[in-house]
Amino acid sequence: MPRSPEDGVDEGPSISQYGVIGRLIRLRDLLRNQPMSSGTILAKLADDYAPGETGRRQLRRDISNLGALGYHIERQGRPVRYVIAAASHLLLDEDIRTLRYLRSAFTDTHPLANQVQQLIDRLTQHLTDGQRRQWQRRTTLHMLLTPVIDYRGCENLLRWLDQAILDRRQIGFLYRSKRSDRWHPCLDPYDLEYTDRQFYLSAYSYEYRDILTYRLDRIVQDAQRESPKLLPSLQQPRRERKPIFFTYRLPASFADGGVSERFTIHAVQRDESHVMVKASDASEFRIIRTLLGYGEHALLLEGPPSLMERMRKTVAAMWANYFPDQLPEDSP
Question: Strand locations in 258-311, DSSP E?
């Protein structure tokens, strides 16, 4: 059946059967900048539209097609002027500000830096002139996600673990410790965390019957040694760490604006000199690292015997680093 002019392919200037796509793109870009009347649009896109009423009908049809593609086109004033007000992939000026924060946050050593940059490049490919100027400005608010070490070598591992968690698959891998590489044959991976500028995997170990924390850069990536390895079995129902309840003390001045929610806070007691905080967390490692972050100002008052002993050993090891020939009890 022969095509009619209403098909929008063969009418007007000589174009290929795919020319309508290019024409819609040019119309879209034009309507993003400012409201325009039909006459102005036809004058600016004279190579795309036929003269006279034929071109006007074609333009009205193209505007309807853009609406069908998800572009919200406003009609303003008289004579009617058209402008694209919003679309699923068009950015508001406030979006540009947010993307600038995102751009500065993911530094080069972050394992997701490449993925984030590719996304940003796609989102900012068709900015208006004003948005382009805003995009090129320096960011004044810095929220850097800068790992302690270069994690770019863990980008593929991070994706692999993420997919294994989503698929609820069991995994195994070699883990590099201070002494040697050790095989962890069967794990249920639960979560990936960015804590203290390091990346960690939280996983249930069937060997240790506990939820352990693994640093990503210590997971051996070696195809010949089959590490990491995706197992054919699925995870068992998720196990949860039991909360560890403890009490610590800080100077009262540290809580003038409220106690920092570094843990789950259950109760706070204050006096003139100190604030006593009853809290809980699932990880002894995180409790100790967080309290040590307060330096000499924090004191662990109460907790399970294993937590108290681990804190004493950690402090004793720190003391030995500075006073190798003197025991802590020998200090003046």
Answer: 264-270, 274-281, 299-302
Q: What is the pLDDT of residue 10?
A: 45
List pLDDT tens digits, range 180-219: 889 999 999 999 998 888 999 999 999 999 999 999 999 9
At which of 45, 64, 86 does a domain end? Answer: 86
Burial of 27 per CB tally in 10 Å (0-12, 13-18, 19+): buried
Where helices occur in 50-194 by DSSP H, the ranges are: 52-68, 93-105, 113-123, 129-135, 155-166
Tell me the CA distances in angstroms from 326 to 290, 320, 331, 332, one per residue in order: 27, 7, 7, 11
Percent of the chain with pLDDT over 70: 91
- What pTM did the predictor assign? 0.61
Could you list the beta-strand ranges (E) of 132-228: 169-176, 181-195, 198-205, 210-215
Instruction: Read off the CATH number of the domain in which 177 is found.
Output: 2.30.30
How far is C-alpha 309 from the geometric centre of its chain's CA atoms? 36
Q: What does the DSSP assignment read for 2-50?
A: PPPGGGSSSSSS---TTHHHHHHHHHHHHHHHS-EEHHHHHHHTTTTS-
The model's confidence at residue 89, banded by pLDDT at 50, 70 and 90, is low
Q: What is the identity of the amino acid at 193?
A: E
Q: In terms of Cα–Cα distance, which of 114, 186, 106, 194 is closest to 144?
A: 106
101 and 82 within one domain: no
The pLDDT, as a whole number, for residue 108 is 86
In a domain? residue 142: no
* Whether 199 contacts 192, CB under 8 Å: yes
Residues facing 260 on adjacent strands: none
Q: Please count the CA atoms within 13 angstroms of the CA of 248 that sit on its side-chain side.
A: 31
Pair 143, 107: CB distance under 8 Å: no
| Domain containing residue 103 | 93-135
